[in-house]
Design brief:
- With about 400 residues, the protein is an alpha+beta fold.
- The protein folds into 3 domains: about 140 residues, Adenine-n6-DNA-methyltransferase TaqI, Chain A, domain 2, CATH 3.90.220.20; about 100 residues, Helix Hairpins (Orthogonal Bundle); about 140 residues, Alpha-Beta Complex (Adenine-n6-DNA-methyltransferase TaqI, Chain A, domain 2), CATH 3.90.220.
- It is built from 10 helices and 23 strands.
- The longest helix has about 40 residues.
- The chain is elongated and about 70 Å long.
Length: about 400
């Protein structure tokens, strides 16, 4: 039931749909100008930060220029199977043929409409089918038929203003996180010297360990590793019979663990306490740090650095593509910078604190994102009504 004063028009009643295109890429006179030409890779947030490609006026004449307030929606691309990219134009721009431009009419605020589309993302994505070769396709007629809960224009603008305030707080927090991450990387480069004469082969710092167990008959926690130094993660294996292996291996908190298939991609981590006891296959060898020689916390920071990733690639021979397997013997011969334990302790303490600052901001960001989702749900359905200055819960 819609709130009083609201209506439920189809999207086609609120906006005119226009198509994009691609100028001839062989004609240099069309490219490297000042007019943004948007593709899906630029649609990472509601507002455009920077288009990878830009057109000259001559290039823009070959396609359609849309004005500020136009909403871009992806209608073709692999990403549609996971998300619905929506972009609100804040300047005149052009876009390619995988995107539709929605030009709002006078009955709807463009920013409100963009938020409304995002709020109905799950419903819209149900209309996505395959156009072949794994490409998603959103039927334009079905998109046009999407109903949009619509309050009066003043209420639309107030709703958009409230949600925008959360967007601004989210963007500010994301900026702080990016700054903290740069600070962390800078500190790490200063404190961990890969070209120091104080180095030891990894085999002197860790020892291989194998805790083989029979595969459980009951559901169990399987441990794996994210690439690019992003740590471990777990998944529940609810049907052990679906796993062909008869034996698995126990990973303990503090173990150094590596994925031999994707080590070259930075799939190396130290197991955190929350993942203690997770089970891994033979493709995930584990090693215990020799604490008399290395502080595991120091080691975790050092092994996530670009220099170590490069070395992992060197000891992961293979053919084309992603078919590269770590040579475990060569892996253990890699030289690791190892200052005194006292120095390692100091480095670990500084870098741990820098990481905690990032984690604190990330918690704030997660809270803001949850709050925004809740606000959008209530404001864009009319469960909460808005007046010029306040938000009130809908009665009844």
């Amino acid at each position: 039931m819609l709130p009083e004063g609201w209506r439920f028009p189809a999207l086609s009643d609120l906006a005119t749909f226009v198509s994009g295109g691609t100028p001839d890429k062989a004609k240099s006179a069309f490219w490297d100008g000042d007019i943004p030409w948007v593709t899906v890779s630029d649609m990472k947030s509601l507002r455009l930060t920077e288009a990878q490609h830009k057109l000259t006026p001559a290039g823009a004449e070959q396609v359609r220029i849309v004005q500020k307030g136009t909403i871009l929606v992806l209608v073709r691309g692999m990403g549609l199977f996971k998300d619905l990219p929506v972009l609100l134009c804040e300047e005149p721009l052009t876009f390619n043929q995988d995107i539709k431009g929605l030009v709002p009419n006078n009955s709807v605020d463009s920013e409100f409409l963009a938020y409304a589309l995002i709020a109905r993302k799950s419903e819209i994505l149900r209309h996505v089918d395959s156009a072949g070769h794994g490409t998603g396709r959103l039927d334009t007629d079905l998109l046009k038929a999407t109903p949009i809960p619509l309050p009066t224009l003043p209420e639309q603008r107030r709703i958009a203003e409230i949600i925008r305030a959360w967007d601004e707080a989210i963007e500010a927090t994301q900026s702080i996180i990016a700054k903290r991450e740069r600070q962390y990387r800078g500190l790490r480069e200063q404190l961990v010297d890969w070209f120091s004469p104080e180095r030891q082969p990894l085999r002197k710092l860790v020892k291989a360990t194998s805790r083989q167990v029979v595969k459980p008959n009951e559901p169990y926690r399987a441990l794996s590793i994210r690439s690019h130094g992003k740590g471990t993660f777990e998944r529940l294996v609810s049907d052990p019979s679906s796993v062909a292996m008869e034996h698995l291996f126990v990973a303990k908190a503090g173990d150094l663990i590596v994925n031999i298939t994707f080590a070259w991609e930075g799939a190396v981590a130290l197991v955190p306490p929350r993942h203690d006891g997770g089970l891994v296959s033979h493709r995930f060898p584990t090693f215990e740090p020799r604490r008399a020689r290395v502080n595991p916390r120091y080691l975790r920071h050092a092994l996530r650095m670009p220099r170590f990733n490069y070395l992992l690639g060197v000891v992961s021979p293979g053919g084309a593509g992603r078919n590269r397997v770590l040579n475990k013997s060569d892996f253990l011969e890699l030289d690791i910078p190892t200052p005194s334990l006292k120095a390692q302790d100091r480095v670990a303490e500084i870098l741990d604190e820098a990481e905690k600052a990032i984690e604190t901001e990330q918690l704030s960001l997660n809270a803001l994102l949850r709050q925004k989702r809740g606000l959008m749900q209530k404001l864009l359905t009319g469960e909460w009504r808005v007046k010029p200055e306040v938000v009130t819960a809908m009665s009844g």
